[in-house]
């Protein structure tokens, strides 16, 4: 008997789980709050790592499709100071283990790999409750319900499934991003495009940073990093794009124009992205019939691993269920035993990075860390 799986959330983790289950002949239904696959922008680029995210893609049987999404040359990376001086640079020679893809295209690849009807769009979850014997009832905002013997919360930071397992709630990390875009950058914003280069660029100074990625075409996606309180951001009216842009740009007074242009000349209104995290050692006692994947299980401050871990969670849970088709609890226990320490290790690695990124020695501490990392990589 293969228990049908109910997955809440059609992000990368939930869709990877659904795909791996499909590969193994296990039925699954994904409920997603968004109205359609194109209801909102799916964000920027992701580097999918050979030690976690790509393992999930392989388990999903989609490596050929994945390779077709890779943006060549985007693994190039450079670190600048506020004067625009390049302090560190690594070219993309095609051998790196972190190829870049557009998040939206990666999600669409997973959606295209599932049978029609697997994802039920427009199903926003309002709550979930235990019915006993490992069964759970999920209630949707429109009043509808579904009862399931195997429930997986893949519904992100503010998971409606998590309370079945844990009382933990995300807390503000002290860091927010402000996102902007420049379009047709090579012709309309050539100085900024030159500063960013062919891949990703990081420009740091004490207490602030600008990161930018070259996405498909000559689009530049900028992330302004500011370790500020929520009250500080609340004082900015982000509904007034011009005023908000001016206020954020003011934090970079004295920086060279090719860097401040990434903010001041943006082609889109600035979007605030506050970052939250669950406790590093977040875990729960085994509860029959329910588990979590991705940010619902182990939300961390931005560290480049979130999407990769979510996909690996989905793949590993799918494989465990396929290995134990007649014993769901054994599968869930096996998955959680491996997932808890894996996610905690990644979260712990990010502790202390604030000093490298925003401390008095920024950006030189960051350059030293990258140089050491590259050296180890070459030594292996």
Description:
This is Flavin-dependent monooxygenase. It comes from Streptomyces violaceusniger. Residues 2-344 form the FAD-binding domain. FAD binds at residues 47, 103, 295. With 380 residues, the protein is an alpha/beta fold. The protein folds into two domains: 5-72 and 101-170 and 279-349, FAD/NAD(P)-binding domain; 171-277 and 353-367, D-Amino Acid Oxidase, Chain A, domain 2 (2-Layer Sandwich). Helix content is 35%, strand content 23%. The chain has helices at 12-23, 53-59, 63-67, 103-112, 185-188, 190-196, 230-234, 241-250, 257-264, 295-298, 306-323, 328-349, 353-358, 364-379; strands at 5-8, 28-31, 45-47, 77-80, 86-90, 100-102, 119-120, 125-132, 135-140, 145-148, 151-153, 171-182, 200-205, 208-214, 220-226, 271-277, 290-292. The strands form four sheets. Strands 5-4-13-14-15-12-16 form a seven-stranded mixed beta sheet, with helices on both faces. Strands 7-2-1-11-17 form a five-stranded parallel beta sheet. Helix 2 packs parallel to helix 11 (306-323), helix 6 crosses helix 9 and helix 11 (306-323) runs antiparallel to helix 12 (328-349). Residues 376-380 have low confidence and may be disordered.
